[in-house]
Each structure stands twice: as structure tokens, then as C-alpha cells.
Amino acid sequence: MEKPSTSQLTDLSIEEIHGLHLKRIEEALTRGDVAMMLSVVEELEEYDHPLCQTSALLGRSRAESTRGDLKKALSYADEASELAALTGLHQLHLDSMSFMGVIYWRAGQLPQAVTALERGLGYAKMYLPDGNVATLLGNLGLVYATMGDFPKALEYLHRQLDEDNGPLAFYNAAIGHLNIGMVYASAGDTTKALEHLERSLEGLQDSKNERAIIGCMQNMAPVLNDLGRYEESLSICSQASERAMTTGDPLLIQGCLFELASVQHIVGSHDEARATLDRLSDHRPLLPLFEVGALVLHAQMAQNESKLDDARMAFETAVVLAQEHGFLDPLSKAYNALIDICKGLSDFDGYVKYNELQRKTEEEIRGAAVHRSLEQQKQRRELEVQREQVDLHRSVVLATLPDHVASRIMRGERVFDNLPHVAVLFSDVAGFTSASSMMNPAELVSLLESLFVKFDAVVRQHGALKIKTIGDAYMCIATDASPLAACTTLAQVALDLSQEHFAWPDGKPLSVRFGMHVGPATAGVIGTERLQYDVWGDTVNVASRMESTGEAGRIHVSEAVARELAPLASVVLTPRGLTLVKGKGVLNTFWLERRQPQ
Questions:
Q1: CB neighbours of 159 closer than 8 A, spacing ≥ 6?
Q2: 588: which strand partners?
Q3: What is the pLDDT of residue 7?
Q4: Rounded CA gap, 477 and 425, in Å?
Q5: Burial class (CB in 10 A: 0-12, 13-18, 19+), 372
Q6: SS3 at position 520
Q7: How far apart are CA 559 and CA 461, in angstroms?
Q8: What's the distance, Cα to Cα, between the start and end of the chain in Å?
């Protein structure tokens, strides 16, 4: 996709400009062109808009991941996630969390990858219930496949197919079948593996992603070999190799040519295999795995033709390279072949030498398998520990924060809310300071507990929100689309509580005074320990002053509250007159009471 001209961008909205740049980033990503990706990212950064700035950070993360700097990639993705959360860009927040999971996966930090991706699923459920979470599910499936948990991997990959409802659902389904096929192949179920790979290839043929098509063909070849369908494998490898040549991608070309040479050798087409290996050599530098593989193929073909000295030389060269790079499987094959060659050459010393090396290599392979199994078990245990910690954190957070705030905290959000219409109610116990000084600790705690348990019940009953208690003071709020609704909710709370009968430990009546105001405020959670959802602003200050300047057993409200509640027939608002309020001067305030039936 060509870069749009300045004149083309002039009349576009920021969303349209953002969309055009994203298409160019995706195109560059498909080609693996990091320089192009970063060029488009720099263009996005010129637009001072959260949408563009967040996508630019995510673009930088993807670029760094493509060139292998996973630490930088994670840092940029984390920045993108935080900016998206603060600016309410839910889809970009989800995309960032999803990509953080991919980065952890590539870095081998599998429990962290699972945690990031499952957090993304939780976030999508809350903010994007109709959104597309197929990519998250697919990535979770691949992570579990890497952990060796094939049933769990298949569960998520099949869910990916069921959940995908986005504009690219058909293409994503093809990629999903590709991933499922690879997992079945790893699990040893070649029949099901081929079934899904064939469905993937069919779905990908209409796409423009040539690399995905070639990748699918590459994965089909060894599965067809395992099923003994060599002619089909040879045909698909030939097609993949020719298509790979058109991409100019040296690694893709090397992989396809090596796979083709391997199948040609299996079916006995040794001249064709040698010619293919010669073509492979033209694309240097070769990846070490392909270089070792090419040497082994040359050696095997020489051995088949009874050219034992040539075969031995090629196998011994392959052994050196395989040892250097730690390729145990090719090393084992080479030692087995060298044992046979030494037997054919009557080289007893060589036969003994390679038998001993083969024995040690087999032990190393078994040890590596055990280590891999133990590592997978360790990662699964780490994941379980993380889940237990998350569950404990969730239970603590849910016990200390409102549900809607707790769920946001557990998804890693920074919680800051602008509340345009919030009613704030403060209360405290009249004469508490002097009375409490005469009480023992047990009596004091018991009194406050009985008081606030009732307060909590009434607040919950009317759908208000408790904020905190400080000593004998209690603070709650009500938020709504209109100040009238918010005030009505808290008025019911205050009126119900004002008619409750509370008593001191000696049985004497206990009086509570209330103060209430309405207006805009800011709410949020600060810090990481002893989390508390709190509310700040002038509205809170005035409500507190209404309480402190009130009288025992009465509900003191501001003029703003009185104005909202005035139309209600169920309440009586009695002017108190002018009241001196610290920091606000003289204000006109009112007493709120419930209207008694006639």
C-alpha cells in the first residue's frame, strides 16, 4: 500500500488517517519490513491524538519484536496498554495486552504469557462483549502447546474458531486450522493434523498472505511423509519452493528447498535431491540446522551408492557442526550412520568410537527429553501458583473495593473516573470524642461495628456506594446520569439511617448527624497496597462541611441538593438560613426530612 499524499489526508478524519496507517503497518509486518514499519510509526507519532499515539507505541513494540529485541518490545507494549487504558481506547488496550502475551511467549516466559492473555480475555468480556477475542484464544492455545499441554491447546484453538466473528474471520479460521494441525502433528495424531492443514490451505489460497500459504505447505509435507503419501508430499514441497522464490525471503526459501530435497531423497530421486541441495547452497548464509541437514542428506545418498569414504567424510563434518550448535537428533542420526559405515569398512576402532559417542548422545537426548518434561511441569506449576496468587489477590480486592472497581484493578487498569454528577453523604456520631474516651477498646469496637454494619446494609439496599470510614465518620456516594437521581438515592439512605435507633453501651440514645452535597468530582484508586477507591474535589469538601456544621439527629444539605430534591413530594426541605462554612463563606443551607403521611 503506497503512502497517501498530504492532500489525500487533509480531508480525512483522525480515525480514517489512523486506519490507513494501520494498513501500511500490517503490510510491512507481513513482509517483515521493520524499516517500513518504523517509518509509518513515525508518521503516526506526528498526530497528537491518543488513537495515533497508542497505535504508534504498539507499532514500535511489534517492530522490536520482529527484530528480536523482546525487552524493548515488552516496554513499548506496556506503555501502549497504559495509555489506552487511561484514554478509554478499549480495543487498543486489548490489542496491547494480547501482544504482551505473545512477547512473553516468545521469550519463553509461558506462565506470564498465560496470565497476560487471560487478563485480556477478562478485559474483553467487560468492555468489548461483542468484540473479537479469537486472536487471544489462538495465542493461548499456542502457549499451552509450547508447554506440552496439547488438550488445553486444542481446547483454546477450537474456541478460537468458534469465537471469530471479525471481518477477517475466514482468513483467521484458516490460520486457526493451521495451528490446530501443528498441535495434532506434535501430539502424534497425523490423520487429524492433515485434515486441519488441508482445511487451512484451502482457506488461505484466496488470501494475499503468501508467507502463510507457504508455511502451511511446509507443515503439510512431514505429515504426509509420516502417512506414507510421499508423492503428494513431493508435489506440495515443489509448489512451496517455487512460491517461496517469489518472496525473496532467504529463510523461507531455505526451509522449502531443504524440505523438498528431503522428500526427493525419501522417494529415491537422488539426482533431483542433489540439484535441490545445490540450489539451497546458493542461498547462503545457511541456517545451521539446514547446513547440518544438507550434509546429512549428501552423506546418506553417498552411503546408498556405497561411496562409504565420501559418506563418512560428510557425516563427520555434519557431526562437528551438530555438536557446535547442540543439534542432538541430527547428531544421533550421523553417529548411527557412521557405525554402519565403519562396519562396512571393517574399521573396528571407528565402530567402537562411534558406538560410545552414540550411546552418550542417546543418554543426552533422553536427558534433554526429561529436562523438557520437567521444565514443562515446572511452568505448569508456576502457572498454578500464579493463579492461586491471582485468586488470593482477587478475593482481597473484591473484599475491599466495589465490584466494578475491583474487576478493573484485576485487569491491570489504573482507575481514574471523572464523575459529573455525584452526591456525597458524610455522617458522624455526635459527642463521640468525649464518650469514646470513657469506653474500653472492646466496647468501642463493638459499638462501631454495630453502627457501620447497619450503615452498610442500608447503603447496599439503595444502590449507593460506601467509600470509607475514619473513626466514627462514614462516607458514601451515589453516581448517576442525573444529579436528581444521585441525590434521591442518598436522600433515601440518610432518611432511613436517621430514623434508626442507635444506643451507647450504657443504653442511652446515640445521635448521628448527616451532611450532603452534589456536584462533579474525581474518583480513583491510588497506590498498590491497602487499595481504596476514593473521591476528591470541592463537592467532597462541601459535603464534609455540611456534616460538621450540622446538628445531631438531622440531615444538613446544601442548596444544590435542595434544588434537586425540591420536586419530590416525599421529602420536606426546611430552610436553615445562612450558614458560615469554612473555606466557602456564607451558604444558604437546608434541613432534609421525610414528609409524614397526613
A1: 137, 141
A2: 578
A3: 47
A4: 6
A5: exposed
A6: strand
A7: 26
A8: 78
pTM of the shown model: 0.58
| Unique residue bearing C-alpha cell 434541613 | 591
Contacts with 53 (C-beta within 8 Å, 6 or more apart), sequence order: 44, 45, 47, 83
Q: Is the pLDDT of residue 372 over 70?
A: no
Q: What confidence tens digit (pLDDT) does each residue in 169-195 have?
A: 777 788 889 999 999 998 899 999 999
Residue type, 317: T
State which amino acid sits at residue 554.
Answer: R
Q: Enter the C-alpha cell of residue 468.
A: 470509607
Dihedral of alpha carbons 283, 287, 288, 290, sign = negative
C-alpha cell at 450: 454495630
3-state secondary structure of 158: helix
3-class secondary-structure state, position 268:
coil
Where do the DSSP E strands lie in 3-75?
none
Residue 122 C-alpha cell reads as 477478562
Packed helices 110-127 and 90-106: angle between N→C axes, nearest 10 degrees: 170
Q: How far apart are CA 161 and CA 173, in angstroms?
A: 6
C-alpha cell at 204: 488461505
pLDDT cut 90: percent of the chain above it? 41
Beta bridge partners of 525: 533
- Contacts of residues 318-323 at CB distance under 8 Å and 24 or more positions apart, as own/partner, are 318/292, 321/288, 321/291, 321/292, 321/295, 322/292
Q: Which residue has the cell 521469550?
A: 107
